[in-house]
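Researcher: Structure for this, please.
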Amino acid sequence: MTKSLSNKLFMKKQLYSFRMKEGTPILQHFNAFNEILSDLLALEVKLEEDKTFLLLSSLSSSYDHLATIVMQGKETLVLEDVRQMLQNNELMKKTESAKEASGLVVKGQKRRSKSKESKRNSGASNSISCYFCKKPGHIKKNYMKHKEILKRKGGKDSEGASASGKSDQARVVEQMRNHVMP
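Model: Predicted structure, token format:
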């Protein structure tokens, strides 16, 4: 790039209008900022004290609180110190979000293991066997052939109810009423 006045003006406009987009990683922002600074340095433009202020003003609004803290009680700012603080802040954000995400995964796994479907599909169904047909994967209560046989014979299912839907106790009470009352 030639050292013309128009090039210097163009690069200064780029520097002063440079803004960080929300969600951009801080290192990517630093790289773009450094590229503009190196182009200005090649044009022999001097920006000693302004670099730090330009970096802070180019940050997105989510860094406003940090920029205020960095400038609190200081008369001068060193660019490398500000960069280090910004990198540390982003590292802490990533660490916190990773902890939150892992906590959510653990809770999610717990919830899934309690569901009926996961118990059925997890291999536990292979260890269960039916007392009626002796085959694995289901229980007598849910065995359709057993239920059909009970309906035909009028017998009881595994819960103590007859095929007609009455329990033994209800049937006994009904029989006693029939014998007592003519």
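Researcher: Any notable elements?
Model: Residues 5-114 form a domain with the Non-ribosomal Peptide Synthetase Peptidyl Carrier Protein; Chain A fold (CATH 1.10.1200). The chain has nine helices and no strands.
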